[in-house]
Amino acid sequence: MRVLSCRFPWRAQRNLMNLAVMAVAILLLVSGTAWAQAKADKADRLFSAVITDVQGVETEVKNLIFYWEERVSETAFVPHELKHLPVKRGTATVNVKFDTIKQIVARPQGEKDLPFVTISLTNGKSAEFVAAMNGSFRGESDFGQVDIPVNAISKVIFK
User: Fold this and answer.
1) Where is average pLDDT lowest: 29-38, 49-58, 93-102, 125-134?
2) Kindly report the CA angle at 44 between 40 and 48, in degrees rounded to 5?
3) Which residues have C-beta within 8 Å of that of residue 64, sequence separation ≥ 6?
4) Among 59, 77, 71, which residue's Cα sits nearest to residue 137?
5) What is the pTM of this model?
6) How many angstroms separate the Cα of 113 from the Cα of each of 116, 130, 133, 150?
7) Are 71 and 133 in contact (CB under 8 A)?
8) What is the DSSP string of 17-70?
9) Distance between CA 60 and CA 44 in Å, rounded?
């Protein structure tokens, strides 16, 4: 009596399993790439705002960043270009992202002290903070590059 071989169905099943594993791997790769691209697009977002200084002068600024320099030695500084505003609430430092901010209203504490800032978010919430570091808002206006120190800000309205 001869036993029939079952080789073909096992090979077909193995090939089908390999195909399924490859399909899942491709699906994960494509979804991971799309997720990374969405995250990169969010990081590359450009912000615009109308900034009013303490003299009442309004300036429309595109490609807005918060800029500050970290002193690492007597003659060396490390520049930081941020798309968030570092503020203090008690002892905590909070980084409020530009894409969540609707408006910032600043009140000076003194000539050398950092200002109080009231930040209104796009979701309707607002709170008062103290600016965490002595930096400036930088960007481009119709007339060229703009650099407005945080101590000279009266209001910032994000568009």
Assistant:
1) 29-38
2) 150
3) 46, 47, 48, 49, 98, 137, 138, 139, 158
4) 59
5) 0.71
6) 9, 10, 10, 11
7) no
8) HHHHHHHHHHHHHHHHHHHHHHHHHHHT----EEEEETT--EEEEEEEEEEEEE
9) 20
d(CA 17, CA 114): 64
Using CA of residue 137, residue 87, residue 52, residue 43, what is the dihedral sign?
positive
Q: How many whole angstroms separate alpha carbon 130 and alpha carbon 87? A: 6
pLDDT for 42-100, tens place per residue?
557 899 999 999 999 999 999 999 999 999 999 999 999 999 999 999 999 999 999 99
Task: Please identify which residue in the block is written with the tokens 């203090």.
Answer: 88
Decide if 115 contacts 131 (C-beta within 8 A): yes
> Token digits for 101?
């901010």
Whole-number Cα distances in Å, 96 to 86, 91, 111:
6, 15, 24
133-151 per-position pLDDT tens digit: 999 999 999 999 999 999 9
